Amino acid sequence: MKIDYHVHLEEGPYSFGWLDRTAKAINSFRQSEDLDKNSKEYMKWQVDALKNRLDKGCFSQEWLDLYLQKAKQLGLKEVGIVDHLYRFKETKNYFEKNMLLDENDPIGKLQSDWLGKVMTENMNDFTNFIVQEKKRWSEQGVELKLGIEADYFVGCERELAELLQNQPWDYVIGSIHFVDGWGFDNPQTANKFEEVDLKVLYERFFETVEQAIRSGMFDFVAHLDNLKVFGYKVEDEAFNQMWYERIASALVETNTATEVNAGLFYRYPVKEMCPGPAFLKTLVAKGVEFTVSSDSHFPDDLGKYTLVNTESLKSLGVERLIGFDKRERTYHSI
Ligand SMILES: [Zn+2]
Ligand SMILES: [Zn+2]
Question: Which ligand is nearest to the CA of 295?
Answer without folding.
Answer: 2
